[in-house]
Design a protein that fits this description.
Layout: E1 4-10, H1 15-28, E2 33-37, H2 48-80, H3 87-90, H4 98-103, H5 118-156, E3 182-190, H6 194-200, E4 214-218, E5 222-230, H7 234-243, E6 247-249, H8 255-310, E7 316-323, H9 328-339, E8 369-373
Antiparallel strand pairs: 1-7, 1-8, 2-7, 3-5, 3-6, 4-5
Length: 381
C-alpha cells in the first residue's frame, strides 16, 4: 500500500468538470495515479475567524490522532506475538481493509452530525480519540505487567543450572530431610569433569556419605549432582569443591514454595489467555474507530482549507490520488500546471513562513489544497 494525496480544487462550472479535468490529466492520459472522488458533505462554515483558528487546531488534532492509530496498530502487533501474520486481518475500518475505506470514504452522519459546527465536530473527534488513547495506556499497562510477571517466572525455568528454577527437576526423595546430622547439597559439574567428580567427591571433605552422589539433571554444558554429607562439613566441602571447579548451588528444598511458584505460573498463564481475546477485540474495534476519526479529520481539514483558500460560496471538489510510485515527480508537475492559475505566488512561497489558516509551516505549499495520508502505519516491524 502506498501513500494517498488528498487534494481539492475549486469547482469550474461544475465540480464534475474539475474532477474530469484532473482525472484526464493524471490518470487517463499519463497513468500517473489512481484517482477517486472524496465525498465531503456540506458542512457548516461559520465565521472566518473560527475557520482560521480551527485550521491550526485541526493540524494538531490530525497529528495526535495519527499517533494513536499507529500506537493501537503497533500494540496489536505486540499482543499477537507469534501470530503476526494475522495483524492485517485485524486492522480494518468499518469491517473493510483500509485502502477500500479510504477510496470509498463516506461521511459518518451518525458519529459526526453535520448539523453541528465544525468546531463541535472536531471536539467530538478529539474527545473520542483521547478516550481511546487513555484506555489503551491502561489496558496495555495491565497486560504488559501480567506478561512481564509470566516471562519472569518462565525465565527462571530456563538458563544456567546456577540460576534456573529447580522445581521441575528435583524431587523430595532426592534429599535427606529432617535429619539433625545429615544434609544433601546440589553440585553443578561441567560435563567434561564428570569422571573427576565421581573420583574425588567422597574426598572433598571427611564427612561425605560414600556412594551418595546421583545425577539428577543435565543440560548441554553441565550436570546437577546431589551429594549427602554431615552438616558440619558443609563449609569445608564447598571450599574444596570450588577449588576443583565444582559449583555448589545454594538450595533449600521447600515443597510449599515450589508448589506456590508452579501455581503462580499456572494462574498468570491462565489470566493471560483470558485477557488475550478481549484485548485483541478491543484493539480491533478501537483501531477502526481511531482510523475512521483520522480520515474524517482529513476531510475536515480539506473542507476548512478549501473555504479559506477558495472563498464562499462553498464550491470545490475533493479528490483522492494514489500516486504511481515511479511517477511521483511527474504527477506533482502535472498538478502544478493544472492549478498554477489558482495562486500566482505559489512558486515562491516559503514553507517556513507561517500564514494563519494555511499551515504552511507544517508542510510544503501548493496552489491546491493538499494533505498526505501516510500509509506507513501498516508497514509494521
Amino acid at each position: 500500500m502506498t501513500e494517498f494525496w488528498l487534494i481539492s480544487a475549486p469547482g469550474d462550472k461544475t465540480c464534475q468538470q474539475t474532477w474530469d479535468k484532473m482525472n484526464m490529466a493524471t490518470a487517463e492520459s499519463n497513468n500517473l495515479s489512481t484517482n477517486n472522488k472524496f465525498n465531503i458533505p456540506e458542512l457548516k462554515v461559520g465565521t472566518l475567524d473560527v475557520l482560521v483558528g480551527l485550521s491550526d487546531e485541526l493540524a494538531k488534532l490530525d497529528s495526535f490522532v495519527e499517533s494513536v492509530v499507529k500506537k493501537v496498530a503497533q500494540y496489536m502487533t505486540d499482543v499477537l506475538e507469534d501470530s503476526r501474520d494475522k495483524v492485517q486481518e485485524n486492522l480494518l475500518a468499518n469491517g473493510v481493509d483500509l485502502v477500500t475505506y479510504i477510496t470509498r470514504f463516506q461521511w459518518d452522519m451518525a458519529k459526526y452530525p453535520i448539523k453541528q459546527s465544525l468546531k463541535s465536530i472536531s471536539e467530538i473527534m478529539s474527545k473520542q480519540v483521547t478516550q481511546i488513547d487513555n484506555d489503551l495506556k491502561a489496558r496495555a499497562s495491565a497486560y504488559n505487567s501480567l506478561k512481564g510477571s509470566l516471562q519472569s517466572l518462565e525465565r527462571k525455568n530456563v538458563g544456567s543450572l546456577l540460576t534456573r528454577s529447580l522445581a521441575d527437576i528435583v524431587k523430595k526423595e532426592d534429599f535427606v530431610l529432617d535429619s539433625e546430622y545429615l544434609t544433601t547439597l546440589l553440585v553443578i559439574v561441567p560435563k567434561t569433569n564428570y569422571p573427576e567428580w565421581q573420583k574425588t567427591y567422597e574426598t572433598l571433605s571427611e564427612m561425605v556419605v560414600p556412594r551418595s552422589t546421583k545425577l539428577l539433571f543435565e543440560d548441554q554444558e553441565s550436570g546437577l549432582f546431589s551429594v549427602t554429607l554431615f552438616t558440619k562439613a558443609i563449609d569445608d566441602f564447598k571450599q574444596q569443591a570450588r577449588e576443583n571447579k565444582f559449583m555448589v548451588r545454594d538450595f533449600l528444598y521447600n515443597e510449599e514454595e515450589m508448589k506456590a511458584d508452579k501455581e503462580e505460573m499456572t494462574r498468570l498463564s491462565t489470566d493471560k489467555k483470558k485477557q488475550f481475546g478481549p484485548l485483541v477485540r478491543w484493539l480491533k474495534v478501537n483501531f477502526s474507530e481511531a482510523f475512521i476519526a483520522w480520515i474524517h479529520i482529513k476531510a475536515l481539514r480539506v473542507f476548512t482549507e478549501s473555504v479559506l483558500r477558495y472563498g464562499l460560496p462553498v464550491n470545490f471538489q475533493a479528490m483522492l490520488l494514489q500516486p504511481n510510485k515511479k511517477n511521483v515527480k511527474k504527477l506533482r508537475e502535472v498538478l502544478k500546471d493544472l492549478y498554477k492559475h489558482l495562486d500566482s505566488s505559489a512558486a515562491v512561497i516559503d514553507g517556513s513562513v507561517d500564514i494563519p489558516g494555511l499551515n504552511l509551516s507544517q508542510q510544503e505549499y501548493y496552489p491546491y489544497v493538499y494533505y498526505k495520508i501516510d500509509a506507513n502505519l501498516l508497514e509494521l516491524k
